[in-house]
Automatic annotation (TrEMBL):
It comes from the Bacteria. The chain crosses the membrane at residues 7-29, 49-74, 86-109, 129-148, 155-177, 183-206. This is DUF4386 domain-containing protein. The keyword Membrane applies. Keywords: Membrane, Transmembrane, Transmembrane helix.
Amino acid sequence: MERTALRVAACCAVIGSVAYLVLTLVHGFLPGTAHELARHVLARDWRAIHLGTILALLLWVFAFTAVGSVIVTGPGALLVRLARPLLVIGFTVFAIDFALDGFGFAQLAEAGAHAELDLMFRAVVGSTTMLVQVLFGLAFAVWALVLLRSRRAPTWLCVLGLVAATGWFVGGCLMFLRVPGIGFPVVAPLAGVVQLWVLGLGISWWRQSVGSVTGRQSTGVDRTIALEVSP
């Protein structure tokens, strides 16, 4: 059961991280004006990119849910119960944000409603997009603490995730409060570190799953030898 859960978590984390990184590079950042935004939206059909990005992050939810299923005792067990809903709520807001971004913006741009497009862009970026930074930062900070307390990942990797996600959370809060000088250029690098952190977790979980199999096989051999030599 544990080996299967770790492998599911590993596959979901790696595939989701790679897909999210590729799709983010293809999509790029949205322009800041209504005219540039309309031109960007009309340049191609972005809906498939947005749907793919949503599904990629859904794999992250699956990954952390799977690894959380094996943390049932110890100091990390209670934190798992707190971390699960945080990540689900963060993903839900992200999915709504990206659905509006990918579908709603396209509809307004195709209709030539630049004023409405600018209004919707400011409303979405000023609400759901900002909230995503807060919720995801907090969720991944708690998950990093879970993994650190339960020793389900290398300590250095847990600390890296905890620092980056906490910075993401704090930066998101400052953005939401519209603190001058704090914007996406500040939180984007931290979010990028978290993306790579999840990829590193996936690799670590796969190695753990292989190690658990090797450990059980070695234990089985030792027990057989002990039975053979016992009087």
